[in-house]
Amino acid sequence: MFRLVNGEEVLCAYEKMLLIRVMEERISALYKGDIIPGFVHTSIGQEACAVGALTHARVSDVITSTHRGHGHVLAKGLEPDRMMAELMGKVTGANNGRGGSMHVADPRLGIFGANGIVGAGLPIAVGAAFAAKDRGEGDLVVAFFGDGAIATGAFHEAMNLAALWKLPIIFLCENNGFSEFSSTVDQHPVPISARAAGYGMESITLAGNDVEAVADGIRPVYAQVRGGSGPVFVEVTTLRVHGHYEGDPQVYRDKDEMTRDILAADPLTVTRGRLRERGIGDDVLDLVDKRVRAVVDEAERFARASPQPEASSVMEYIYSPRRVYPPGHLDVSVDAGGAAVSQSKIIKAALDDSLAADPDVFLAGIDVAGGNVFGLTRGLAAEYPGRVLDTPISESAIMGLAVGSAMAGRRPVVELMYLDFLGVCLDQLMNQAAKLRFMTGGAVSLPLVVRTQFGSGRSSGGQHSQSLEALLAHIPGLTVLMPSSGADAYGLLRAAIEDDNPVMFIEHRLLYEKKSSLPSKDFRVPIGKAAVTRPGSDVTIVSWSRMAMHALVAAQTLTEEGIDAEVIDLRTIAPLDRETILESFGRTNRMVVAQEAVVDFGVGAEIAAMAVDSGFYSLDAPVVRVGARYAPAPYAPVLEREWEVGPDDIVAAVRRVMSC
């Protein structure tokens, strides 16, 4: 049965498949000749999956892809010359040479990126689909992934959330029989398509080496998903001709069996035979072949002739430009007659005001519609229907929701219930949110905020007390904010939500009930600017979050001893306000850094290194760090008190540097 409408459509599909094939063969040869650097994974044999699956796609539809994604992006419309230039690392590449083979993207064409992390595109697809559903224009997302991704947690979290929210996603699994070097049958206890049933999701299996079977079979799926009935799981069975990577000797495959499979199931051979049956002669097919090879020749010529990126551009595209606020937004203005309110209510007010100011802002996370674990967001769901959303306990899906929806133009504020839970979703923050602007060559901004909280001192134990800001600050592309006062919490959170970068907003739960005045709605704290909360002349104390409060207490004690301490509250951990720190250190010539985190390998170490490098000629005494002992937070109160630090420890450290 011929499934596409006419021979012309089949011929068009054939030409697209041939373009992918010839491009991949050329890429393989160029890689062997050391013209293409890095790693390369080709999709030879899988051309019908990409072309058939995207036959019915709109430009405004989104795809997420895999490390084997060349076919997907070409089928979606990416220009061959820009793809080839990207693989050669040239400035004319789709991503200005920042992405490479595994990370090709072009958001203007709905290509939200191939991905070097198995399964990582699936939570991002959830975010893009959420944004598409909210726009209500009938767009959808096709999330390509391989059979190996079925075993990842990201797959299950994404499937669950998409099914729960009835998001417009086609989950398209290209089952080529191998997960890297292992046979698929050795990796999964049940058939791949059976996984969809666990989420109440419809599934179909298509013959992935027959472009007509794929295009015809997926046509009603597009209509169904665009119609709002929720996601569908599509498995396409296909063939991987080359190994997991270019150069893979494939010792794990039977060579004779592989040869037979390739000859029997080559999608180009199948389609060429169908075209002949429809009366399309070899003369026409030869012209198509000649045209495709000319396109690939030109793509290679263009890429070879294109310049390398300027070495001086190495720091470009890491962050979007920061918003500059007029002076009137930087002065705290409060109602003199207003009652002091808790910091938790001030944070809620910042969220409320942000939701009211911008319809693209939404909140999502575990139990946020009910108020969150501290009741901080209580009432917002009723005030903003459809914009304050409870999610399952699926931290990777939550972060992917933020990434994908931010790429699609929304301003998500998602909640990570405890900072300690960072480990279960770090990929979406470290490898996706932080890097996607850079790896797309500045093609996207990611205006998202992750609110979370931490704090020791209440016997929360080793898995609910950690101060992990150093880990996050070590990731280029992330912004890390840690307010101490109520005013700063408001001003920083409003600035974070308005910023075009991924921001980690870390609150201290033991400051939630500390009361202060609520700033005006116009107040903003500029990101990257520390505050001198107490001027002094003898020693500089650098601190942040609750330790900034402890530093002020310590400074008062030191005053009674005749020591005039200057206290700096960083407020922003990354980017670090080095100028304010060094200016203060240049006057006092002594420094103590106080952090709640364990002292080893922390932010304090970075500040100390800066002091003895850039500030070397101001150094009159050792730079001393104050922090928790290098151990997990103990549970027993007596042990926790011994482990953590407070004002007395800061006082002792200042006395030490003053004695030198």
UniProtKB/TrEMBL annotation:
Its cofactor is thiamine diphosphate. SUPFAM superfamilies: Thiamin diphosphate-binding fold (THDP-binding), TK C-terminal domain-like. GO terms for biological process: tricarboxylic acid cycle. The keyword Ligase does not apply. Residues 341-514 form the Transketolase-like pyrimidine-binding domain. GO terms for molecular function: branched-chain 2-oxo acid dehydrogenase activity; dihydrolipoyllysine-residue succinyltransferase activity; magnesium ion binding; oxoglutarate dehydrogenase (succinyl-transferring) activity. It catalyses: N(6)-[(R)-lipoyl]-L-lysyl-[protein] + 3-methyl-2-oxobutanoate + H(+) = N(6)-[(R)-S(8)-2-methylpropanoyldihydrolipoyl]-L-lysyl-[protein] + CO2; N(6)-[(R)-lipoyl]-L-lysyl-[protein] + 2-oxoglutarate + H(+) = N(6)-[(R)-S(8)-succinyldihydrolipoyl]-L-lysyl-[protein] + CO2. Its EC number is 1.2.4.4, 2.3.1.61. Keywords: Oxidoreductase, Thiamine pyrophosphate, Tricarboxylic acid cycle. InterPro entries: DH_E1, THDP-binding, Transketo_C/PFOR_II, Transketolase-like_Pyr-bd, Transketolase_C. SMART domains: Transket_pyr. It comes from the Bacteria. Heteromer of E1 alpha (BkdA) and beta (BkdB) subunits. Part of the BCKADH complex, consisting of multiple copies of BkdA/BkdB (E1), BkdC (E2) and Lpd (E3). Component of the branched-chain alpha-ketoacid dehydrogenase (BCKADH) complex, that catalyzes the overall conversion of branched-chain alpha-ketoacids to acyl-CoA and CO(2). This is 3-methyl-2-oxobutanoate dehydrogenase subunit beta. It comes from Rhodococcus erythropolis (strain PR4 / NBRC 100887).
